[in-house]
Amino acid sequence: MGFYHPQLRPKPKPKPWHPSSCYFSCLPSPPPQPPAPLTPPSLAPWTPLSPLQKTANLFPIRREVYGDGRIFDITHRYTGDMPSMGSENGLGQFLRLPESMKNGSFANISEMKLITHTGTHVDAPGHYYDHYFDAGFDVDTLDLEVLNGPGLLIDVPRGTNITAEVMKSLHIPKGVRRVLFRTENTDRRLMFKKQSDTSFVGFTTDGAKWLVDNTDIKLIGIDYLAVAAWSDLVPAHLVLLESREIIIVEGLKLDDIQPGVYSIHCLPLRLLGAEGSPARCILIK
Ligand SMILES: [Zn+2]
């Protein structure tokens, strides 16, 4: 450790001003500005398309499989005709276009109104536990590591709910953390039927208990709107959500995919305070 003579001490370089370093502290605060009116941005640089150009080759491609058969979209498309629990006539209109270019707006801007447990979606612990709901265990708290990683797509025996006996018969190895259960709900194409149906299959309470007690599964996927059979709806959900370690993904589209090991990816929205959220889910081979 030494001391510089004051004249020999290297002069500190003047710091270049950086907007992020002292933007708020160094500058006198600007006078408050009135909010700018929302005027449409100029369209000048663009040449309007001719009517022929407007309609040429405008055929959107909608896919279920991407990347030469490697990526499967296991999310149901949101439509007014998809089932909604308790509805005879499906989801109905959930999307509208309050700002429409046909009505003179500079852009199309739609808005939606949707129960958060519609279509392919996740359940957070607050869905069935009110004290978890109050404490904030919402979809924003779900672990992305659980929602993304290797897992199994398996077929369960048909003609039965997922009971303890069925779970036992599946011989899911310890260490498997993510399992998507394909059931007869897929064969019956229940998610493609407008009218909601309570005859779907799902976990019974003893099946859920068996899973919690005997497996390492933390992500459970199912192919209808509820993970638990209608008769066991509340108790089976309670068993699965109690530890707050298990994430439930409901309403998956598992048609036409070989059972096996996949990389599962599920991304719910960060809806603060919501106990459910639509999620985009894919499988990668
Ligand atoms: Zn749900």
Automatic annotation (TrEMBL):
Chief localisation class: secreted
GO MF, any single term: arylformamidase activity
Domain of life: Eukaryota
Keywords: Extracellular matrix, Secreted, Signal
Keyword Signal belongs to the record: yes
Cellular compartments annotated: Secreted, Extracellular space, Extracellular matrix
UniProt cross-references to SUPFAM superfamilies, sorted A to Z: Putative cyclase
One GO BP annotation of this record: L-tryptophan catabolic process to kynurenine
Xref: InterPro entries: KFase/CYL, KFase_sf
Ion transport keyword on record: no
Pfam families named in the record: Cyclase
Family listed: Belongs to the Cyclase 1 superfamily.
Protein name: Cyclase family protein
